[in-house]
């Protein structure tokens, strides 16, 4: 069995940069229909937000003999869609929305209102950081809240590089 890759550190500055970049990118999704995706802020019964899952993680690091640092990093986060939908078809629509958002983030073509859309590039990150890939898992619903709302989750992970001189 392959060993799970564990972080070797944190990229504290990268956390702030990636959180801002992801908020901007998520809100460019063509299927939002006027909605906004907020950072860690949901209404009691509805809304869409994203939340960092574990911060910005340094997964590997190499230092050259000239003290040039090359890091491979991850920024895992969750997109949370809160709804009071109670019918099966409504819940399936929420799941489909999240799956379409996930496909779009991964640069896969998606169809929205009869038009095909595809993310062409990831946002530029400064200070030596560059997004190389975004991956996602399938969306899933959680146990309903006390007020009968339910959160639907889409796990997403941003892989990026960070290079700098010491």
Task: Please characterize this protein's 3D structure.
It is a single chain. By secondary structure, this protein is an alpha+beta fold. Helices cover 20% and strands 40% of the residues. The chain has 2 helices and 10 strands. The protein has helices spanning 12-26, 88-105, and strands at residues 9-10, 37-39, 47-52, 57-63, 68-83, 110-112, 115-117, 129-136, 140-141, 150-165. Strands 1, 2, 3, 4, 5, 8, 9 and 10 form an 8-stranded mixed beta sheet that branches. The protein is elongated and about 60 Å long. The termini are far apart. The mean pLDDT is 92.
The biggest sheet amounts to: 8 strands, mixed
Any low-confidence stretches, pLDDT <50, length ≥5?
Answer: none
User: Per DSSP, what share of the residues sits in E-state strands of 2 or more residues?
Assistant: 35-45%
Q: In percent, how helical is the residue content?
A: 10-25%
User: What structural class is derived from the secondary structure elements?
Assistant: alpha+beta
Q: SSE order in H/E notation?
A: EHEEEEHEEEEE
Radius of gyration (CA) equals 18 Å
Alpha-carbon distance between the termini? 36 Å
Note the total helix count: 2
Which word captures the global form? Answer: elongated
Mean pLDDT: 92
* DSSP, total strands: 10
């Amino acid at each position: 069995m392959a060993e799970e890759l564990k972080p070797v550190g944190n990229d504290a500055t990268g956390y702030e940069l990636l959180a801002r970049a992801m908020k901007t990118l998520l809100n460019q999704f063509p299927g939002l229909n006027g909605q906004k995706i907020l950072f860690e802020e949901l209404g009691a019964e509805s809304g869409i937000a994203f939340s960092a899952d574990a911060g910005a993680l340094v997964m590997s690091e190499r230092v050259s003999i000239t003290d040039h640092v090359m890091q491979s990093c991850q920024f895992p986060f969750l997109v949370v869609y809160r709804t009071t939908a109670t019918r099966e078809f409504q819940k399936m629509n929420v799941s489909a929305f999240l799956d379409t958002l996930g496909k779009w983030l991964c640069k896969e073509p998606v169809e929205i209102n009869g038009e095909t859309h595809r993310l062409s590039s990831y946002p530029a990150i400064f200070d030596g950081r560059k997004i190389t890939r975004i991956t996602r898992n399938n969306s899933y619903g959680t146990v309903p809240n006390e007020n009968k709302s339910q959160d639907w989750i889409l796990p997403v992970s941003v892989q990026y590089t960070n290079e700098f001189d010491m």
